[in-house]
Amino acid sequence: MTSLQSSPMSDAATIEPTASLMRRETLEAPDAVRRMLARNGDALAELAAQLRARPVNVVSTCARGSSDHAATYGKYLIETLIGVPVASAAPSVASVFASRVTTGDALCIAISQSGRSPDLLATVDAYAKADVPVVALVNDETSPLAERADWLLPLSAGAERSVAATKSCIAAMAGLAALAAAWSGDDALAEAVAALPDLLARAAQLDWSPGLAPLSTARQMFVLGRGYGFGIAQEAALKLKETCAVQAEPFSAAEVRHGPMTIVGPGFPILAFATSDVSGDDVMTVAREFAARGAVVLTARPGGESTLPAIAAHPAIEPILQLASFYGLAEQLARTRGLDPDQPPHLAKVTQTR
């Protein structure tokens, strides 16, 4: 464990003293993932063995904000690699309507930075009362969520002071990828997850500044992804809203072909996340169509046709790498627009949602 946490290329050492908290914490993400993987290796193996021995019929995820976007990423991993349906729980069902859970042979995966939101805890309690085991990926190990978990997987991201979550979101995605690899027995994905910290260190340093000028005056835009990249599109859209005051809306490359298609015309900004697999092909097809209409299209895809640099890896890991690069763009864009990326107006680090 010591060697993993004391990498000779420690990412924290490259952080400029004057950098914003958001930038500092983005650059800390590789070390956070190293710690998370080292800390949870045994627990993940045990949990995966239990899930294989006693299969579940459905997985319910419980999360809000950036954590919910990590859950979307995990949904695609579990459904494509294991074949178990994954649904996002509506926290108000438990917290507002006080409804009970009657589903059997299920698994609840709760994801949170703080582990303290009342609606998340009410949902976890409802599943626990139904004897559904709860897996918690949480950064605060002293939180009520951590205490309630049957399986605790600490994110080990360390203190996160910027309101905009970065390293905890990346750590949650990495944890879900590690769980999916162990559960499915996919050796290629397991190797890709093990290589993720070093790749993240490279990705966080990639230059996405070509996106600054096209987005410097944007008021509305679309963010596209598909498959493993859809949760990253959701997360990027949220960060553009909260740090840059841009009304960014995330869409699947399939869903955007319906009503939203009519909005896109000359000058409309598009940010597209494309993986190197078949779902990335579809994202690029839509991106080209929008570009032909005169839209301002920024694409991130490993190799070939791309306006933003991206690192080639296992297709399930590429979106996490793209997200680390995007966080750098969002932080720069916020400052370009005269905003403080660490303290967005009207927001708090822990949201007390009932």
How is this fold's topology laid out?
Layout: H1 2-5, H2 21-27, H3 29-53, E1 58-62, H4 65-81, E2 86-88, H5 92-95, E3 106-112, H6 118-129, E4 134-138, H7 144-148, E5 151-154, H8 167-184, H9 187-203, H10 212-215, E6 220-225, H11 230-244, E7 247-252, E8 269-273, H12 278-292, E9 296-300, H13 318-336
Parallel strand pairs: 1-2, 1-3, 3-4, 4-5, 6-7, 6-8, 8-9
Helix pairs in contact: 2-13, 3-8, 3-9, 4-8, 4-11, 8-9, 9-13, 11-13
Summarize the structure.
The protein has helices at 2-5, 21-27, 29-53, 65-81, 92-95, 118-129, 144-148, 167-184, 187-203, 212-215, 230-244, 278-292, 318-336; strands spanning 58-62, 86-88, 106-112, 134-138, 151-154, 220-225, 247-252, 269-273, 296-300. With 354 residues, the chain is an alpha/beta fold. Helix 3 packs parallel to helix 8.
Can you walk through the features of this model?
This protein has 354 residues and is of the alpha/beta class. The protein has helices spanning 2-5, 21-27, 29-53, 65-81, 92-95, 118-129, 144-148, 167-184, 187-203, 212-215, 230-244, 278-292, 318-336, and strands at 58-62, 86-88, 106-112, 134-138, 151-154, 220-225, 247-252, 269-273, 296-300. β1, α4 and β2 (86-88) form a beta-alpha-beta unit. α2 (21-27) packs antiparallel against α13 (318-336) and α4 (65-81) packs antiparallel against α11 (230-244).
